[in-house]
UniProtKB/TrEMBL annotation:
Coiled-coil regions listed: none
Any one Pfam family match given in the protein's UniProt record, by short name: Nitro_FeMo-Co
Domain Dinitrogenase iron-molybdenum cofactor biosynthesis: 13-101
Protein name: NifB/NifX family molybdenum-iron cluster-binding protein
Amino acid sequence: MKICITSQGNDLNSELDPRFGRCKYFIFIDTDTMQYEAVENLWRDAQQGAGTQAGQFVASKGVKALITGKIGPGAERVIKAAGIKVLEAHGKIIDVINKLQEEGK
């Protein structure tokens, strides 16, 4: 399954970034193969609409789930309209992924 996790760094040992629209990186990962791509969040310094623009970008990547800390109402509308499940988490990216796989989500 392809998921997106908001991250403070560009690898799986980074901490999850609790801010969706203002996160530093989006990590897109295929949980079946563990292949991932880290993409810098180009909208994190936007004057307004960072969450909505970030949400549109994440939705365009075809993910099934988004793992983050908090998500604003504009971004949440975009994400949910795309049929993406939102999960709240914290900690290291790799630990979050391992926990999800153990739980079978």
